[in-house]
Each structure stands twice: as C-alpha cells, then as structure tokens.
C-alpha cells in the first residue's frame, strides 16, 4: 500500500533504532536493525519501518488507518473467500468510526501502528492470508480458493472440471508486487525464514509473531509461495500460542513444501 500510494519507494531508508516514541508512549520493535529499506524491513520483520510508513513518524506522513484498511480489503482480508466449504468466517478490519462506536474511545496513532504490523483490533484467517499471498505470487490476481478441482464418475472419468475463478485483479501495480516478491524472497534467503534458504527452486515468504494480549503468548505465523520464479503452491501456517513464526511455523512449512516439491 505504501509503495502504491507513493509514501515510500524501494530506495526509502528508515533508521530502525528498536523503538519510537509518540508523546509519552513508546512503541518497540523486536530488535535494533539500523538502516533498513523495504526489502530488509520485510525480511527481518522491522516493526519500526512499518509503524513509520503506516502511522507516520518524522518526515514520513504515513498511510493512515483508512488507506491501510482499503488495501487490506483489496487483498480480500475482510471478506469471505467463498471457498466451497460451509462455516467460513471472515476477518475484520477496524476503522476509527468502529472504535468510537463500539469502544467509546478515539482512534490513536498507536492504533494505526498496531494495524500497520497486523496487530491490535485487526483479525485475519489463514485462508484469507493464503489467498492474499497467492495474489502477490501470481502478479495481482485474487483467486477464489477451491477444495474440489474435478468431479469424476465411478469409473474415474472427469465429468466436471472446476476452473479458477478470479475475484479481483490489477488492484496493485506490477512494479509494487515485484518489490514485495523480492522482499519475500530475501526473507527466505537471508531473513527470518532463512532455514528455508536451500529449498529446491527457492521460495518467498513472510514470518509473523502475533501478540495475543494474554501474558507473553504469541501466535506463530508463516505464509509462503514456491518455487520462487514459477509458483505452484501457497502455504500459510498458523500455530496458535505457538511462539515465534520463524522458529515454529517455518519448520512446519518446510516439511510440507519438501513433500510437495518432491512429488
């Protein structure tokens, strides 16, 4: 979103000092990363970078909650994916109006910072995230997920083939998507998912460690596409209360990807 809206480009450098302070409130990252561009920010999960481009800091104005929400919705993160299974739940994208109405509180910069890193009031499902990752991998086509690919008769003859259905397309330009794919590739090659670096054909991914608000519990996330140059599979792993994405979710993804790619 920040690339598309020209808030930053791939040459923008932000100094990740490990925290930023707004008023009397401090917002922390996982570590001090120093000077980072978008490639390193994604590869190493720089909260400070995304606080800045999402909520603004210093001379960067930031996207703000409305624009962030618009782009999350473009990637299908607030709607049912329409998968051919009953009981699907949709994610939730908060707005300042929603908070005023339901919480009787104003929307603060900290709310935007949390939203910028996928925390706070925001909710997404693993299936939604997998579909969004697929749109990044395939250059901008949000595809309706399917369980059924073909229907056969008792003799194995195909009587119906389910063709891919495009839910939306061209909502982010190709240059921006190419930058994100490269950053996800660097996540695997040298970043937080580098334990996948020797995967045949390469991959692009993003780790996540989501605070739950209950003690120090965190959900471990990892979403990935492979092979890198010609993606055939998208996989999203969520381990609830599992710890860090890099140490818990990535090894699970590795086992699945190795099995799939060796078939």
UniProtKB/TrEMBL annotation:
Highest taxon listed in the record's lineage: Bacteria
InterPro entries linked: Beta-lactam/transpept, Beta-lactam/transpept-like, PCN-bd_Tpept
GO biological process, one term: cell wall organization
Gene Ontology MF annotations: penicillin binding; peptidoglycan L,D-transpeptidase activity
Domain Penicillin-binding protein transpeptidase residue range list: 1-258
Cellular component terms per the entry's GO annotation: plasma membrane
Protein name (database record): Penicillin-binding protein transpeptidase domain-containing protein
Species name: Candidatus Sungiibacteriota bacterium
Lineage: Bacteria, Candidatus Sungiibacteriota
């Amino acid at each position: 979103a920040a690339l598309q809206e020209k808030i930053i480009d791939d040459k923008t450098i932000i100094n990740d000092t490990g925290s930023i302070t707004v008023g009397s409130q401090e917002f922390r990252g996982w570590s001090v990363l120093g000077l980072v561009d978008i490639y390193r920010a994604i590869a190493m999960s720089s909260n400070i970078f995304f606080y800045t481009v999402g909520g603004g800091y210093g001379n960067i104005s930031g996207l703000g909650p409305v624009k962030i929400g618009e782009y999350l919705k473009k990637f299908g993160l607030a709607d049912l994916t329409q998968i051919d299974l009953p009981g699907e739940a949709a994610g939730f994208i908060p707005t300042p109006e929603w908070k005023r109405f339901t919480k009787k509180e104003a929307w603060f910069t900290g709310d935007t910072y949390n939203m910028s890193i996928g925390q706070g009031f925001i909710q997404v499902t693993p299936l939604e995230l997998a579909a969004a990752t697929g749109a990044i991998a395939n250059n901008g086509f949000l595809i309706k997920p399917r369980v059924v690919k073909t229907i056969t008769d008792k003799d194995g003859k195909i009587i119906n083939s389910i063709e891919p259905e495009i839910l939306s397309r061209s909502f982010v330009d190709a240059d921006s998507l190419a930058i994100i794919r490269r950053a996800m590739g660097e996540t695997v090659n040298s970043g937080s998912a580098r334990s996948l670096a020797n995967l045949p054909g390469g991959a692009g991914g993003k780790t996540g460690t989501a605070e739950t608000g209950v003690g120090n519990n965190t959900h471990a996330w990892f979403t990935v596409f492979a092979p890198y140059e010609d993606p055939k599979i998208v996989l999203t792993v969520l381990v609830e209360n599992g710890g860090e994405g890099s140490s818990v979710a990535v090894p699970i993804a590795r086992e699945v990807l190795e099995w799939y790619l060796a078939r």
